Amino acid sequence: MTFLGLARKNLFRKKLRLILTTVAIIVAFLIFGVLGAFQATLTSGVDLAGADRLIVTHKINFTLNLPRAHVAKIAAIPGVKRLTYHDWFGGYYQEPRNFIVAIAVEPESFLEVYPEYQLTPQERAQFLSTLDGIIVGKTLADQYGWKVGDRLPLHSNIYSQESGGSTWDFVVSGIFTGADARTDTSAVYFNHKYFDESRSFGRDTIGWLTVQTEDAKLNPEVIKAIDETFANSAYETATTTEAQFQAAFVNQLGDIGFMVTAVSGAAFFTILLIVGNTMMLAVRERTTEIAVLKTIGFTSGRIFVLILGESLLLALLGGIIGLLLASLATMVVSQAGGFLATMTMTPSVALTGVGIMAALGLVTGLFPAMRAMNLNVVQGLERR
Question: Could you report the per-residue pLDDT of 56-78, keeping only the tens digit for each?
Answer without folding.
Answer: 999 998 889 999 999 999 999 99
